[in-house]
Structure formats: structure tokens, C-alpha cells
Design a protein that fits this description.
The protein has 115 residues and is α+β, with helices and mostly antiparallel strands. The chain has one domain: Beta Barrel (Ku70, Chain: A, Domain 2), CATH 2.40.290.10. 19% of the residues lie in helices and 36% in strands. It contains two helices and five strands, in the order αββαβββ. A five-stranded antiparallel beta sheet has the order 1-3-4-5-2. A hairpin with a 2-residue loop joins β3 and β4.
């Protein structure tokens, strides 16, 4: 993330994905320990995630050149295998469990409810 909110990039990447826009400011993403990453723990088939666990959707796209290639490799691997990545992300002052699936030129991240 750069030192600004990525409102314009999300808005342009969002078109055609069918979800209402959600804007996450760099101050919210990375509020814990200065992290601005998503740590992927494992990959699972999408149908193994019960809908009861699905919480809030977010459209995720890389900010600028840094990390774009790694982002694309992960996105295309998820798309090719038909899997969902399960990981951890920090925003809104706490860590969340998130499911990532390929969506357009970005990723659809859905926070998951867990005990």
C-alpha cells in the first residue's frame, strides 16, 4: 500500500465484478504491527467452506507495481485449481481470517466468522 487510500484503483478494478464498492484505507489495512500483507495458510476447495462462516466481502487488488507479479501468480493459481486460499489479514485494529478467490483482475476476499 502506498501512503494514500486506494479509492480510485479499487473503483476502476471493481467495475463488472458485481459487488458494491468497499474502500479500505491504508490506515485500516495494516493497523496491527504495521502489516500490509495477507498471510496465506492453506488452500481448500470452495465447497468446503460452510456459508454460515462467510462474513464481509472485499475486492482486493495490488497497489502499484510492487507485488503485482506475485499477486497475479497467486490469483491465477487459485483460479486454475478452483481452490480458495485461507489466510490472515490485519485491519480495523485486529486480525481477521479471510478466504480469497480469484475475481477478475483481483481477488475476492471474504472475512470468515470463527470461534
Amino acid at each position: 500500500m502506498s501512503a494514500r487510500c486506494w479509492h480510485s484503483q479499487v473503483q476502476s478494478a471493481h467495475r463488472g465484478c458485481g459487488l458494491p464498492p468497499v474502500f479500505i484505507c491504508h490506515r485500516a489495512l495494516g493497523a496491527i504491527e504495521g502489516k500490509r500483507t495477507i498471510d496465506i495458510d492453506k488452500f481448500v476447495p470452495k465447497d468446503e467452506i460452510d456459508e454460515l462462516y462467510l462474513n464481509n466481502p472485499y475486492y482486493i487488488a495490488p497497489d502499484g507495481e510492487v507485488g503485482q507479479q506475485a499477486f497475479a501468480v497467486i490469483r491465477e493459481a487459485i483460479r486454475k485449481e478452483g481452490m480458495v486460499a485461507i489466510g490472515k489479514v490485519a485491519f480495523t485494529s485486529r486480525e481477521h481470517i479471510i478466504a480469497l478467490e480469484a475475481r477478475g483482475k483481483g481477488l475476492l476476499g471474504i472475512t470468515l466468522r470463527y470461534p
